[in-house]
Amino acid sequence: MSITITAFEKSPDGGKGLARDTRVRWALEEAGLPYEVRLVSPKAMKEPAHLRLHPFGQIPTYEEDGLALFETGSIVFHIAEHHAQLLPRDAHARARAITWMFAALNSVEPPILDLVTVRIIEGDKPWSKERTPLVQERIRQRLHQLAARLGDAEWLDGAFSAGDLLMVSVLLRLRPSGMLDEFASLAAYVAQGEARPAYQRAFAAQLAINAA
Ligand code: GTB
After folding, report:
1. Centre of ligand 1 from the C-alpha of residue 20, in Å
2. Residue 86's pLDDT is what?
3. Pocket test for ligand 1, best of 9, 18, 24, 58 (most atoms within 8 A of CB)
4. Which of 14, 15, 18, 167 could, after both became Cys, cross-link 207 (CB 3.0–4.6 A)?
């Protein structure tokens, strides 16, 4: 099997691993699958060759022996479907792990993305200062709920799964804001994800491209 993913030629985060190719790299590393990376410039991302792979002109994409995918959640799910390291075989445990994948992307990530938007993309707009605390409150509410469910467990539902991979990745986007540190158990949960050898390999691979 030959796998190629796409990533930023130079990530705007300078190697913090926050661009979504890191999530796909991490899943591939957990599954033990070798992969190639094609780097794409901002201009090339919007050109026909890339738009054929990704209708919205973004990264990451995933190609595997005639199959082309976009959307990180779908790519991670595809990888996880074939690897028990990422999705348990038991039908109920598997369905719950998939639920956590959706929860990460649909319930936890949106308010975090709102914070990025209001602080960075719309930082110079007159409403930015007033809106920021409202968005922060919505994030805190979600994090309280997530921390309550996690309790003192290691992972969200038994063994580490693709649900944890996406949840940790989503929470990592909060780190620059300092808000993650308000929730000690979630900060520890994220640190535990980052300590996994597969994450370390994924992070190092993107850093090698994006540092300096
Ligand atoms: N829903 C899609 C998915 O999950 O795959 C979203 C893909 C997406 O947002 N891709 C971004 C992209 O290609 C890169 S990851 N943007 C270029 C464009 O739209 O033209 C988002 C991202 C970008 C930058 C940082 N950062 O600098 O910290 C973090 C995350």
Report:
1. 6
2. 97
3. 58
4. 15
Residues in contact with ligand 1 (CB, 6 Å cut-off): 11-13, 18-20, 45, 57-59, 71-73
User: What is the rounded CA–CA span in Å between residue 38 and residue 16?
Assistant: 19
Ligand 1 mean position to 18 CA, how many Å?
A: 9
Architecture of the domain spanning 3-85+198-211: 3-Layer(aba) Sandwich (3.40)
On whether the 91-196 domain is CATH 1.10.10.10, my answer is no
Question: So where are the chain's domains?
Answer: 3-85+198-211, 91-196
Written as six digits, the tokens of 24 are: 């796909």
pLDDT digits (tens, 9 = 90+) for 152-200: 999 999 999 999 999 999 999 999 999 999 999 999 999 999 999 999 9
109: Cβ contacts below 8 Å, ≥ 6 apart: 170, 173
Mutating to test ligand 1, I would choose from 5, 9, 20, 210 the residue with most ligand atoms within 8 A of its C-beta, which is: 20
- CA neighbor of 90 nearest in space, from 39, 41, 159, 180: 159
pLDDT digits (tens, 9 = 90+) for 9-41: 999 999 999 999 999 999 999 999 999 999 999
| pTM of the predicted protein model | 0.97
Residue with CA at minimum distance from ligand 1 atom 18: 58
